[in-house]
Amino acid sequence: MEVADSLLDLVGGTPIVRMDRIGRDLSCHLLAKLEYLNPGGSVKDRPALSMILAAEADGSLQPGGTIVEPTSGNTGVGLAMVAARRGYRCIFTMPDKIAEEKRQLLRAYGAEVVICPTVAHDHPDSYTEVAARLAASTPGGYLPNQYENPNNQAAHVATTGPEIWRQTAGRITHLVSTIGTGGTITGIGHYLKSMNPDIQIIGADPEGSVYSGGTGRPYLVEGIGHDYWPGNYDRTVADRVIEVSDRDSFLTARRVTREEGILVGGSCGTAVWAALQLGRDLGPDAVVVVVLPDSGRGYLSKVYDDGWMADHGFLRAGGDTIEAVLAHKGADLPPLIHIHPEETVRAAISVLREYGVSQMPVVRAEPPLRLAEVVGTVSDRALLETVLGEPAMMDEPVAKVMGPPLPMIGTGEPVDAAAKRLGDASAVLVLDGGHPTGIVTRSDLLDYLAGIER
Question: Which of 35, 188, 305, 436 has the fewest CB atoms within 10 Å, i.e. is most exposed?
Answer without folding.
Answer: 305
